[in-house]
# Entry
Amino acid sequence: MAFLEVRDLKVHYPIRGGVLNTIQDHVKAVDGINLSIESGKTYGLVGESGSGKTTIGKTIIGLEKATSGEILYEGQKVTNKARSRKEKYANYNKDVQMIFQDATSSMNPKKRILDVMAEPMHNYFNYTPQETKKRVADLLEIVGMNAEAMYKYPHEFSGGQRQRIGVARAVASDPKLIIADEPTSALDLSVQAQVLNFMRRIQKEFGLSYLFISHDLGVVQHMSDDIAIMHRGRFVEQGSKKAIYSNPQHIYTKRLLSAIPDMDPTTRKAHKVERQRVEASYDAQETEYYDPKGRVYDLQPFDTDHHVALKPEEPNVSLENENLEIGGKN
Amino acid sequence: MAVERSLLEINNLETGFRFGDVYHNAVDDVSLTLENNEILAIVGESGCGKSTLATSIMGLHDPKNTQIKGEVIYKDLNLLDLNEKLYNRIRGNDIGMIFQDPLGSLNPLMTIFNQISESLQYHSDLNDQQRKDRVLELLNQVGIPRPEYIMKNYPHELSGGMRQRVVIAIALANKPPVIIADEPTTALDVTIQAQILDLMVDIQDETGSGIILITHDLGVVAETADRVAVMYAGQIVEEASVEELFANPKHPYTRSLLNSIPHELDDDDDELHVIHGTVPSLQHLPRKGCRFSPRIPWISEEAHEENPVLHEISPNHKVRCTCWKHFHFEGEEK
# Structure
């Protein structure tokens, strides 16, 4: 059962202009997406910069305001309530945590690691100082660091170590879901491997779910069970890892997958030809995969665990949908 | 008959940065050659000295705090002996450079046209009309749509991919025989990255120039390079053709790196390979013995050379130290 549901989430930013600085238009950063998150699974969210993937993560955790749609946590509506201090939202606040791309700027440089990590604990548990220390030491051990580290300051660590501390801090409040926004993009290959390994180990140990946001398709593939590909604020394709990678249907997914560099230099030429072919067909078929306004179509079931945003096929259905859409907009 | 020289020859280059009164070498005894019509990739993780190598070739270091030894030979000229004035005639004209951050390397207050023609103005005596034609030609070459219109724009009006194309156009302006590209696609999305890499390969086919491509991304290397040098802690640890390096990696560092890439549809329980320990900082770099040995402590001391040098183990495949012969991954039997 899904413990977190996102329904028809929209995040629009107003564009102001003109003489009176009135709202002229909206940037539709996220434009109607649905997600349901089950425990113990990892959901990959892939897209190019500006596709809205980070905005989804930030809205779930409450750093951005949803324009419409709802977020349900264990059946309770928590949309835009993440900063609420009310008791009834405390569980949601505790159970959804985030790991940021830039670990350095996500930690207060004036605080020791002990204090950085104790903060979420103070918010949700009544630990004594000894218990806090014990718990911080345990958490540091989980991410492969010495307990001594708690008396140091963030700048004393390398980038990879800081990101591991970031992971440990996210786990500190015993969450159910961790939103990981590009957690390894700033790291070197070997350090990335380390952080990803720890994230998976922690997942096994605590039965966590991850919403793994990344532009790196290789990393997402390694980490995720389910993957959603985003473009222009909407999902173009959603499904199991296998479905997406071995049987991509949407032209945008195909384009994205073909752009991943091939690790075999001997097939370089063939890969380039294939990539350019996909790129050309992407340009040629844009009207088939996007509506006249350039918006991604609604997701349609393609297989049991695979949804694709294709043009509605049956004319009747599509007419009805369009009428509804137009009616809704006007 | 004179011996045919490489396009660019780097001999025993050492670049040290000053910490107090001591210089610590970030690039330590690097020798490389670049031929016409080839893309030489230099790969390594952050701090391995690959960017320092590039900036040393271009003479971009603060002479008060750096110490550069060795030679960079271009057309029988040791670039490191040149004074600033002469160097400026080489930079941009003979050696073009493409930086990682296109926004940082463009002037926000100048139009695209002015930025490209600046380099033309400095190095050539084209008249206004010829310069304009050349700028348009360059913008076309790097695949910028509507160049007439775009050249009047400012950098902030362009997307990241477009900006990087402009930076490439500037680097190409005077048809330099040598181009140094430092992480040219790191800040870009995969689809844009693919376009820029295609562009670089096409340009190289057209102009026949030699390109030094500096990157941390092995995928980029596999897609574009002809020859690869892998750097670790300031030294080249392995050098080979791209096919050879990916098919037959020898040095423990190269093998470990290739092993830590997340692979396609691997088993869910597979853990990624992690290289033991961390990259030592410049001051704490072991200057004696095999620099990679602390990262592979399960390999016995005797396996390493006392003063590791590059050995040519097969034609055009060089590996530093002898430890590769005895190397196996931790927990694996040799």
